[in-house]
Amino acid sequence: MRVFVTGGTGFIGANLVRLLLQEGYTVRALVRPSSRLDNLQGLDVELVQGDLNDPNLWQQMLGCRYLFHVAAHYSLWQKDRELLMRHNVLGTHNILVAAQKAGIERTVYTSSVAAIGVGAAGTVVDETYQSPVEKLVGNYKKSKFLAEQEAMQAARAGQDVVIVNPTSPIGPWDIKPTPTGEIILRFLRRQMPFYMETGLNFIDVRDVAKGHLLALQKGKPGERYILGNQNLTLKQLLDQLAQITGLSAPQQALPAWLPKGVAWVDEKVLTLLGKSPSVPLDGVRMATQTMYYDASKAVRELGLPQSSLSVALQDAVDWFGSGIGDR
What we know:
Largest sheet: 7 strands, parallel
Number of helices: 12
Distance between the termini: 33 Å
Strand content: 15-25%
Strand order of the largest sheet: 3-2-1-4-5-7-11
CATH superfamily of the domain at 2-171 and 202-229 and 292-307: NAD(P)-binding Rossmann-like Domain
Order of helices and strands: EHEEHEHEHEHEEHEEHEEHEHHEHH
CATH topology of the domain at 2-171 and 202-229 and 292-307: Rossmann fold
Number of strands: 14
Helix content: 40-55%
Radius of gyration: 19 Å
CATH architecture of the domain at 2-171 and 202-229 and 292-307: 3-Layer(aba) Sandwich
């Protein structure tokens, strides 16, 4: 039961690798020469160096039975469009071709709810919903949509590919961190005096890892499964963090025009002056949308667990508090 994993050094990938090892799988993980390997230290994992767009990638996959393609480039900066398309879209196309050439029996592709898009303000959407690509905010979301189309096209051509769409995971090993982890870190550092009126679907990252394994075992080829749990406003999440930590939650919401204006100046003006921007405009635009999802299909068909978010938040707080993410 040898599996090939991309993105194993990241947040979801590190939790998935641990679950696979626990369940008796042998793991071979693709890492870039520049990858930070902290999340895999001490694990019995075979590391192979390479790149998603390597034409000989299939040779690295020989002897593996399954593929978990978790890796993706994440950036909300508008200048990174070409990088996003090369890693996320072309990289997904290439690894699916490589998987077929290497004789991989089944691939689980990690998409994102970013590829699905959002419904009208405050509405909850499921796998049957799809925003038109032109309405997806930012190049990251567009790249994930196009990458998912590559996976669907491969499935239509007869390749055994199952697609999972995680929402916003919470928990340990969020090393970069992700946008959700950044919220938790800023809260812990008392760098969040205000909040934005927005909402997200949250899930324990270990449930996301379990959802990947369940997709391998039970998923239907060509289907996508939202891996999510609870829809919360950002204020509700911050209030839960306040209960866990004893720190005060911000009480005042920012009007949307203020961070949008700051981000526009930051990214459009300061970059022209040779300065590094700190607030991505697309990130602020995303934050003004309510991103609520219904994961009942994955619960019903795969048995996706719905673990307590309070436990996930506590574990994330403990992990960030340990200082591991700052190394």
